[in-house]
């Protein structure tokens, strides 16, 4: 009996060792995404295709609904990694944070919003916005800052040449327009395509195309977390890169099918057409490297919006080590 117990124990220990060896010591990382958006398709692909698991990571994803709430969750250790606009890391630094928030993996590289008109316009030009009621986004957020940047680029003063509404919560902007507020609105997909399908509005311009390449949505974490979990952050970045490469090499239909579980209330054809629109304008970054040119463009946009107290050093708030290693496949 003792011999059988000993053999059983030995077998159990051996099996445990094998399982542990296969998992490589699974580590959990909690992500807080600023909103649920198909704009983040590579992240959902990485989750659904098992790329995080391949790297030995257990990922818990939660939606934190808004830049302020996302950053509060990160700073208070409610999450480990935030997926949010790079401008939030600059805001934290401007407040004199002792534990800065570091951008380590870029997910999207253009603005993701579109200008939607209530009326169909065949030959749109930005000067048609003058004198109109424009339903914008939250002051200080990337959508609003990019929107203002594009309007100024087209010689329109957003605070003088039109009636700018920006006191409506991000999650309620689309429904406010659908209810009759505004003649123009700034919307992400799939709302833009959904409004076209339902005859509520018509896409007349892309803010992503107009504003150029920027580090629009980035994975970031506190310097203290980065210092203590470098191996996990590398594995995390590797998984994101796999997701980016998968998206870059597959059709809108294939991508839509993979990420559909995250958007169960969106029709497959709308999901597919929205992804196609983002692919065509290069919104999804094909690697996680946030370069200095993009960082400077971001600060130009913030400066134009009056939200930049001082320019922040790229080297202090951006760490490309993990992204470069992931891309090199080391």
TrEMBL record:
Keyword Coiled coil part of the UniProt annotation: no
Cellular location(s): Periplasm
Originating species: Brevibacillus borstelensis AK1
Protein family membership: Belongs to the bacterial solute-binding protein SsuA/TauA family.
Keyword terms: Signal
Protein name, as recorded: ABC transporter substrate-binding protein
Main location: periplasm
Coiled coil: none
PANTHER family: ALIPHATIC SULFONATES-BINDING PROTEIN-RELATED, TAURINE-BINDING PERIPLASMIC PROTEIN
């Amino acid at each position: 009996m003792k011999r059988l117990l000993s053999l059983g124990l030995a077998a159990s220990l051996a099996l445990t060792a094998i399982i542990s060896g296969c998992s490589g010591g699974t580590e959990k990382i909690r992500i807080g995404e600023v909103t649920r958006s198909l704009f983040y398709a590579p992240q959902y692909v990485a989750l659904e295709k098992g790329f995080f698991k391949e790297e030995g990571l257990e990922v818990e994803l939660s939606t934190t609904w808004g830049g302020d709430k996302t950053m509060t969750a990160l700073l208070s250790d409610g999450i480990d990694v935030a997926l949010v606009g790079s401008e939030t890391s600059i805001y934290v630094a401007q407040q004199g944070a002792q534990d800065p928030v570091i951008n380590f993996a870029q997910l999207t590289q253009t603005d993701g919003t579109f200008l939607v008109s209530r009326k169909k316009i065949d030959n749109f030009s930005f000067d048609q916005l003058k004198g109109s009621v424009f339903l914008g986004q939250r002051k200080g957020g990337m959508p609003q800052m990019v929107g203002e940047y594009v309007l100024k680029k087209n010689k329109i003063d957003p605070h003088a040449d039109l009636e700018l509404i920006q006191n409506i919560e991000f999650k309620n902007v689309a429904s406010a327009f659908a209810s009759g507020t505004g003649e123009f609105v700034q919307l992400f997909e799939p709302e833009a395509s959904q409004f076209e399908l339902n005859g509520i509005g018509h896409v007349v311009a892309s803010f992503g195309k107009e504003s150029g390449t920027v580090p629009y949505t980035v994975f970031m974490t506190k310097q203290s977390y980065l210092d203590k979990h470098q191996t996990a952050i590398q594995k995390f970045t590797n998984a994101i890169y796999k997701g980016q490469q998968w998206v870059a090499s597959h059709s809108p239909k294939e991508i839509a099918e993979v990420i559909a579980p995250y958007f169960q209330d969106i029709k497959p054809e709308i999901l597919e057409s929205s992804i196609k629109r983002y692919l065509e304008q290069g919104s999804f970054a094909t690697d996680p490297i946030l370069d200095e040119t993009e960082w400077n463009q971001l600060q130009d946009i913030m400066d134009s919006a009056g939200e930049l107290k001082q320019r922040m050093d790229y080297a202090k708030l951006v760490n490309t080590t993990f992204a470069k290693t992931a891309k090199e496949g080391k």
